[in-house]
Amino acid sequence: MTKYAVVTGATSGIGKAFAEKLAKEKYNLILVSRDESKLLNQQTMISKEYDVVVYTIAIDLTERGAAKRVYTEVTQRRLVVEILINNAGFNECGTFLETDIEKEVAMIQLHSICTTELMKFFLPSMVEKKYGRIINLGSTGSYMACPNDAVYAATKAYILQMSKGINAELKGTGVVVTTLCPGSTKTAFASKAGMESTLLFTLFVMEPETVADIGYRAMLKGRTSIIVGLYNKLLVFTSKITPSTILNSLTQKMLTKS
Length: 258
Fold this sequence. Notes:
Elements: E1 3-8, H1 13-24, E2 28-33, H2 36-50, E3 54-58, H3 66-76, E4 80-86, H4 101-129, E5 132-137, H5 150-169, E6 175-181, H6 189-192, H7 208-221, E7 225-227, H8 230-241, H9 244-254
Parallel strand pairs: 1-2, 1-4, 2-3, 4-5, 5-6, 6-7
């Protein structure tokens, strides 16, 4: 039976890198994004270059009910999903008094609710077949409060803790949930959030292909979570032993737009 991998936020950044990595490893793909024209171009390129089957689903995952519509389309096509990459995400950065509440609610919907729903829909068949892999995109912000990026960091903390809890429940089933926690990465993410001038995105910025490759290997090994890159590992370790007043001050400086 032909197996498929679902990748959300597939047309750019880490999601695009994951799609190409999986195609290179001969996985057939279901690519999900809201930009239909980019999806169709990506479908043509990947299917031609890697000789795999590629389906696309153009949908805005910030909309309520979007996860169910993705799952319904996949099941109607009778596609067997072995891998789920919950990558789609964005940021609304700034002080809480100034940020846009509509964007923040959409971010909560996408990162927290949609990720939860997609897992809820796709997990049962994975458990039934005794094999499955899920990657949920966390962040170095999953491990700390982030002044000037409080809501984003909170959604990523939710992803990390939910994923760890569910992964513990799945022990012995053949299904593993891995939380991939990158730091700053060279994607359109920063420019869309107006963060490209912050210190966070001028120091130790990683390539999305590197992040995807590390995440792919961690997923196959059944890792529960992985922080990507030595600098980011040191950052998270330091955050655990640094007094919160000092950590908050440093984090705020890193996330202040110049």
